[in-house]
Task: inverse folding
């Protein structure tokens, strides 16, 4: 094979049009509106979720947690589990639907941490590995409904 034929058949970097994925618009009125909705939902729902998780739901043998443990860097199993419940409710409850960056900012975490944690919890709930936690999430949703938020069935979100 001649050198010119080899050069013609070898793709040159950047010579082929690459498929571009659609990106959500950065900035603009729609993004600002969506972000504001997430922040409003978080400020409306978060105090109720913290109150429920810090004392009103049965601790199921996992122990009590304080708001400082929920918002801090504690990696104890009881704090992590209840933190996951709050994140899951903030993401999936119809009254919230908060974005990952808004949840991450409220808890001083990276949005990828929230996404990874929620992905694992969602997978385990959907696979039926965490029936006890699904029941507790339903208890939290029922308690929120008693406080005037829309009724929510956890199984429908899976």
Result:
């Amino acid at each position: 094979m001649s050198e010119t034929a080899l050069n013609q058949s070898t793709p040159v970097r950047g010579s082929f049009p690459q498929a571009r994925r659609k990106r959500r618009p950065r900035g603009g009125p729609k993004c600002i509106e969506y972000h504001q909705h997430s922040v409003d939902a978080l400020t409306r729902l978060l105090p109720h979720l913290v109150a429920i998780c810090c004392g009103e739901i049965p601790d199921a043998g996992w122990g009590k947690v304080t708001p400082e443990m929920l918002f801090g860097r504690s990696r104890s199993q009881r704090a992590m589990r209840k933190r996951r419940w709050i994140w899951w409710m903030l993401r999936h409850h119809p009254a919230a639907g908060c974005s990952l960056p808004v949840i991450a900012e409220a808890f001083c975490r990276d949005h990828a941490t929230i996404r990874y944690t929620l992905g694992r919890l969602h997978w385990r709930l959907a696979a039926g590995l965490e029936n006890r936690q699904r029941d507790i999430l339903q208890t939290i949703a029922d308690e929120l409904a008693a406080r005037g938020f829309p009724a929510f069935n956890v199984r429908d979100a899976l």
